[in-house]
């Protein structure tokens, strides 16, 4: 394991006990863990196609086998039980249950999720399915993908059909995961599947992902009015690199596209006017039809927040040697093809904080900032941390385990930030760490590990890391232990 610096906790309270009923979980995603890519009628997804395209994924890795959860889910549920998880967030593979993206569900695919849900319930673990975690059936991409309006309706139909299968035993549902990534990394920068670099199409994709969310909630709520529905968005705290007007505008722009472009329609029923101005040249208004925003703005019973880091940004990117006018190094967290449609010139500054193995700066205060902002600026809704964790380059040591102090420190700091937010009245009801298992980490392949449980990809042997035992103690206590 590489050496990692750690920041001093911003929230040093010696105890941080969460309220009774707080949900403790871990999260995964279908393409990252299931494997069995060609079994039981599963069709190809855009990630199957993307990963098999040379040069798209580090090391040429694919999710064809991943960590074989499809065959080993009972073993993995036993690990969850050992940890004491009360809840488990997973995603349903759209191409496994509806290979063509339309029409009747695959019996074999639906049966797999019935078995998974039943096994979770037998273990006393609450299932939290997410309907879309980026694995669009390839036939729908062949027809144009998320930039096409019809894809939103296909998603709502799929959601309704799988909800009819599992709705008798699963009362809480997440529709879409990180629509920013699916739209802008998939269709603008090309970092993610389907690997397109079409800024105008990315904006349409973002709108149709949101429209699909709203239409899916309508369909599912009609079946089970008492169920709880929401979506998971990846949010960042955004800071200007310096005091200049250019840096302030850069922060406004990235906050607008990363955070408000999704929060505002979900919770307010409108797109932020300043962001619409930023992207005016791409003709975004033309794809937003009458009634769309009302469909997107369905009542949410819960909102998932995926948080990993803070962005520090600058609008002054013309300095010498790749430096802004403040003398700070300017780069992008993504490729040279920017996902920031309408704000491609914005630079991202390393602010000098400690980083994870992904190079992501560690800043738990940003999570506190995000949570309190949601409480102060938006209509009330129950909040859940649906992803939060740290990826590193790790191997088993001579003792046959992983001493992942960096991950423990990261989760500890962020849990204390969550607790501080709860004491300020933020309606935070649960925490799902990312991730239960080491897995296929998208364009990074198998080079980065986020799991509480180490997986030997050659043998599929699971070994709980130190962080797994620590997290089990957190769950038992109802919060992180006293600072060591």
Automatic annotation (TrEMBL):
The keyword Transcription regulation does not apply. SUPFAM superfamilies: (Trans)glycosidases. Keywords: Carbohydrate metabolism, Cellulose degradation, Glycosidase, Hydrolase, Polysaccharide degradation. Substrate binds at residues 32, 133, 177, 308, 434, 441-442. It catalyses: Hydrolysis of terminal, non-reducing beta-D-glucosyl residues with release of beta-D-glucose. Pfam families: Glyco_hydro_1. Its EC number is 3.2.1.21. GO terms for molecular function: beta-glucosidase activity. The keyword Hydrolase applies. The active site is at residues 178, 387. One of its GO terms (biological process) is cellulose catabolic process. GO terms for cellular component: cytosol. Transmembrane segments: none annotated. InterPro entries: GH, GH_1_N_CS, Glyco_hydro_1, Glyco_hydro_1_AS, Glyco_hydro_1_beta-glucosidase. Belongs to the glycosyl hydrolase 1 family. This is Beta-glucosidase. It comes from Actinomadura viridis. The lineage of its organism: Bacteria, Bacillati, Actinomycetota, Actinomycetes, Streptosporangiales.
